[in-house]
């Protein structure tokens, strides 16, 4: 059962985002990016109050993803990537991105906070940041 509403086009869009943002971090890294995306659709808090679809989330401006500005984002979604996207849409969560709404790739170590949100960990090149449960209960 999906935790957010989707269709085939939005699954492919999320799959392209996973690949563009984290292909270098392998399957688990791409799944974690999927967690952040799904959490943003579910959030209804902070910067994500008007985000209701995967398309809204991917193209949110400001606050969207840098990958959408790169040519490799516009490659066709591969079946493998679509399957990873579906796993996150169905609610699979992977620490440290389980409840995260943000991630980024720092030049060095992860800061303890980023825009007031706490670091919940790092996976390969990305640091993940999670709001408090009182700020965003819908992502917990």
Helix/strand order:
HHHHEEEE
Please, how many helices?
4
Distance between the termini: 17 Å
Sheet-strand content, in percent, reads: 5-15%
Q: What value does the average pLDDT take?
A: 96
- Poorly predicted ranges: none
Shape: globular
Residues in helix, %: 25-40%
* Major sheet characteristics: 4 strands, antiparallel
What is the tally of beta strands? 4
Q: Numbering strands along the chain, what is their spatial order in the largest sheet?
A: 1-4-3-2
| Rg | 14 Å
Secondary-structure class:
alpha+beta
What order do the helices and strands come in, and which of them pair?
Layout (H helix, E strand, L loop, with lengths): L7 H15 L3 H18 L10 H5 L20 H11 L12 E3 L8 E2 L2 E7 L2 E5 L10
Antiparallel strand pairs: 1-4, 2-3, 3-4
Helix pairs in contact: 1-2, 1-4, 2-4
Folded structure, characterized:
This protein is α+β, with helices and mostly antiparallel strands. Helix content is 35%, strand content 12%. It is built from 4 helices and 4 strands. The chain has helices at residues 8-22, 26-43, 54-58, 79-89; strands at 102-104, 113-114, 117-123, 126-130. A 4-stranded antiparallel sheet has the order 1-4-3-2, covered by helices on one side. Helix 1 (8-22) crosses helix 2, helix 1 (8-22) packs across helix 4 and helix 2 packs across helix 4 (79-89).
């Amino acid at each position: 059962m999906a935790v957010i509403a989707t269709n085939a086009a939005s699954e492919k869009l999320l799959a392209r985002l996973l690949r563009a943002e984290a292909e270098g971090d392998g399957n688990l890294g791409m799944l974690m990016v999927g967690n952040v995306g799904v959490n943003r659709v579910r959030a209804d808090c902070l910067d994500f109050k008007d985000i209701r679809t995967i398309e809204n989330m991917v193209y949110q401006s400001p606050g969207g993803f840098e990958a959408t500005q790169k040519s490799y984002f516009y490659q066709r979604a591969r079946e493998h990537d679509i399957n990873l996207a579906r796993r996150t849409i169905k609610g699979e969560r992977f620490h440290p991105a389980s409840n995260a709404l943000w991630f980024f790739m720092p030049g060095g170590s992860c800061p303890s906070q980023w825009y007031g949100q706490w670091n919940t960990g790092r996976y390969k090149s990305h640091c993940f940041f999670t709001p408090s449960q009182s700020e965003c209960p819908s992502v917990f």
